[in-house]
Design brief:
The complex is a heterodimer of chains A (about 300) and B (about 350). Chain A has about 300 residues and is mainly alpha-helical. Chain A has helices at about 20-30, 35-65, 70-75, 90-95, 100-130, 135-145, 155-165, 170-180, 180-195, 195-205, 210-240, 240-245, 255-260, 270-290, 295-305. Chain A has a domain at about 95-305: MetI-like fold. Chain A starts with 20 loop residues before the first helix and ends with a helix. Chain B has helices at about 40-50, 90-100, 105-120, 135-150, 165-185, 195-200, 220-225, 230-235; strands at about 5-15, 15-25, 30-35, 55-60, 65, 75-80, 155-160, 185-190, 205-210, 210-215, 240-255, 260-275, 280, 285-300, 305-310, 310-320, 330-335, 340. Classes of the chains: A mainly alpha (about 300), B alpha+beta (about 350). The interface between A and B is medium-sized, with 17 and 25 residues.
Amino acid sequence: MRTTIQQPNSPQNGETFQFKPELLTLSRTWKPKAEEGRLRKMIFVWIALAVIVIFFMLPIAYLFSTSFKSPVDVVDGSFFPNAVEAENWPRAFAQVPLWSFMRNSILAAAFSVFVTLGVAVMATYAMLKLEVGKSFLPDMILASYVAPPIIALIPMFVLMQKLGLLNSIAGMVLIYGLMNVPVAFWLMRSFVLQVPKALDEAAWLDGASYFKTFFRVTLPLLYPAMIATGLICFILSFNELLFAQAMTFDSDSRTLPVGISLFQGERRVNFGQMAAASSAGIIPVYFIALFCQKWLIGGLTQGGVK
Amino acid sequence: MAKIDIINVQKYYGSYHALREVSLSIKEGEFMVLVGPSGCGKSTLLRSIAGLEDISGGVIAANDQPVNDLSPQERNIAMVFQNYALYPHLTVRENLAFSLKIHKFEKSEIDRRIKLAADMLGLTDYLSRRPKALSGGQRQRVAMGRAMVREPTAFLFDEPLSNLDARLRVEMRTEIRNLQRKLRTTAVYVTHDQVEAMTMGDRIAVVNKGGIEQVGTPLELYRDPNNMFVAGFIGSPPMNFISARADGHQAVLEDGQVVTIPVKAHGDISIGLRPEHIFLDKLEHHHTLKCKESRHFDLGSSLQYFFDLNGTEIEVSASGDVRSHSGVEIQIHFDPNDLLVFGADTKRIR
C-alpha cells in the first residue's frame, strides 16, 4: 500500500492556497529578538566589509580601467573610459619586452627566496635556540630591518660591481636574498620558538650533532613556516623597484617594476600602456595571494597568536 | 650501567646559586629519586648529569671517569622528558630508531631492539603511528622505549608522569620501576611528588634550595629524618610541628601543657608528630594533649581531622566514625617514642 504524507498546511487537492495576512504577522512575531539582532549585525558587518573592500580595490579597479583608456580619457580623469582602447595591452607588450621582465622578476624573486630561507632559517635557529649572539644579534637584525633600504644602495652597487654581478639576475638574486633575511628572521622567529627546546635536547642525548639535530628534527617542523615566509619574501622581491632600477640596465636583467617605470618617458607618460603593463604585472602576485592564502595568513598572523 | 658520582657540584645562573656544593653517589643499577619542591634545583642537577647544563664547579663522574667536558651526545645517557619530547614528524618506529640510526646500527639490530622494546612496552600495534595519534600514556611509553633501545649507561627521568592523570600515573610508576628492575640500568628520577619518590626509589635524595638535605632509603627518610625540612616533606599527610620550650626530657608548650620528649633538649624546640601517630583513643603508655577541633573531612576510607593547638594546626588521620565537631575541645593521644625533636636551627636532636 502506498502512503502519502501530507503537509498540514499545504493546499489540498483542488484547494487553492489563500494568503492569510495573520500568518505573516505570526511568523514575524515568532522570530526571537536575539536572532533579529544578529541578522542586523550581520548586515552591518557585510556593509562595512563591502566598503573596506571597495576602498582597497578602487586603485586596482582604476588601474585596470585606465589600461583601456585613451590618453585623452586619462587626462579627463573619469573612472570609466569613454571609448574602450584595447590596443593599450598589445602595444604595452610591443613597446617594452614585458614577458622578459616578468620572467626576470619571477626568476630573481624565486631564487632569492632560496637564498633568504637558506640563511634566515639557520640563522634564526642558531640565534634563538643555540643563543648565538645572545640578544645582540636579533636586535641588530631588527635595526637593519628598520633602516631605509636606500642607505644600502651605494655600498651594494659597489659590491655588485666588484663581484661582476651588476646587471644580472644572479646579482638581483643575491641582493634580494640578503635584503629579505631580516624580514624572514622576524617571520620565522615565533615558529622557531614554538618548537620545544626539549626536542633539540632529546636529539642531542640521542647522539645527534647540532647540524643533524637541526636538519633531522627542527627543519622538518619548520616547513609550513618556510612556505609562508618564502611566499612573503617572493612578493617583496617581485615588487622591489629601488635596487632593480639602480643595478639592471637591459631587458636581460631588468625586472617588471623597472619595466613598468620605463613607460614614464622624459616628456610624456603613456598612462594607458603603463596601466596595462602594471595590470599584467600584478597577476602573478595576485595568484600567489589567492592560491596560497592559507600559508600566507599563517605566516603573517603567527606572531599574534603566540 | 654505570655508577654516577656527583662531587661538590656548583651551578650559578648569573648571581643566582642554583646548586650549592652538591655531592651524591649513585650506585650501579640503583633507582635514585631526587625529590624536592619546585625551583629547588633537582632538575638542574639532572640536566647537569645529562650534560644539558654546564656546571660552574665540581665533578660529575660516570664509572670514576669525569664527564664534565663531555657533550650530551658523548655521555651515552638517555633522558625521558616531562613533555615526552617525541619527534612529532616521525612515527613511533622512527622515534625509537632515531638514535640507533644516528649511531649507524645495522638494520637487523635496529629491528631487533625496536621489537624488543615495543613488545615490552605494548607498543607493537602503534609503531606506524605519529605521536599526536597516541594517548598520554602511550606517548610516555614511546619516550621510555626511545631511552631503552639505546641501552644507555643511565636513564634520567625529569618528572615524566606529571602530565598524566592520577590513575595512569600510578600505573606508569609501577611500569617504570619494573622496567628498570628488569634492565638493571642506573636511573635518576626527578619528581616533586613525595609519594612517587617513596614508592619508586631504592634511595631518595631530598633536595632543597640547591643543596641535598638527606639521602637514604624511603623508610630511613620517613623514620629518621635529619631535619625539619625532610621530616615535613617526606610523608603524607605531612608531619605536624609543635613549638615548645625544653628542659631535659620535659617540654612545655605555649599553653603550659607538658610533654615528655624522648631526647634531652634545652631551649626552643619543635616537636614533630606524624598525623598517623596521633590517636583519638588512649592506649597504654600514651601521652595526652588537649586541643580544639577546627574542621574535619570524611574521605570515606579515613577521616582527616584538623585540631587547633595554641594557633598551630595539628592534622590527624583516623578511621571509624566522626568523633568530634568543630569548636569542640578534645584530647589527642600519642606514643612519646614517636615524637621527633628539632632544635631552633631545624636540625634533629637525637
